[in-house]
Amino acid sequence: MSYLRKMNMQLASKMRFVSAQLVALLTDGLWLRSASHANEMARRLSEGISAINGVSLTQATQSNGVFAVLPPGAAAKVRESFRFYDWDQARGEVRWMCSWDTTETDVRSLVAAVDAAVGSPASQRNV
């Protein structure tokens, strides 16, 4: 039985590593600042993406995820520079997730890549 606990990372003596991360996350509201930042970056991404002709958002952006339908072939072009998942491949729906370390530059770059992949006229967007 001890072997199974060790194999599954359940050895109590190693909990100090997990606990140290939790203590840091819960100290001084770091978790809330991190989550708020991720949500703000998703909001900016959603605004930038929704302004691109040929792309439609499928869900309201209420947290750190953005769901959109891209024209055929556009996702493959964007994947040359960015990693993301198909949410519903049959519909061409993709899922983009923002995190604590997503930057405004990351958001602008993704919006520009989608814009170029879709082939809509490039424009200056305040993202």
Written description of the protein model:
This protein is of the alpha+beta class and 127 residues long. It has a domain at 31-118: Aspartate Aminotransferase, domain 1 (Alpha-Beta Complex). The protein contains 5 helices and 4 strands. It has helices at residues 2-7, 15-26, 30-50, 74-78, 104-118, and strands spanning 56-57, 65-69, 85-88, 93-97. A 4-stranded antiparallel sheet has the order 1-2-4-3. β1 and β2 form a beta hairpin. It starts with a helix and ends in a 9-residue tail after the last helix. The mean pLDDT is 88.
Query: What's the total helix number?
Result: 5
What is the radius of gyration? 19 Å
| Residue windows where pLDDT falls under 50 for at least 5 positions | none
Quick check: average pLDDT? 88
TL;DR of this structure?
This protein is α+β, with helices and mostly antiparallel strands and 127 residues long. 46% of the residues lie in helices and 13% in strands.
Task: Indicate the topology.
Layout: H1 2-7, H2 15-26, H3 30-50, E1 56-57, E2 65-69, H4 74-78, E3 85-88, E4 93-97, H5 104-118
Antiparallel strand pairs: 1-2, 2-4, 3-4
Helix pairs in contact: 3-5
What attributes characterize this protein structure?
127 residues; alpha+beta; Aspartate Aminotransferase, domain 1; four-stranded antiparallel sheet; 5 helices; 4 strands; elongated
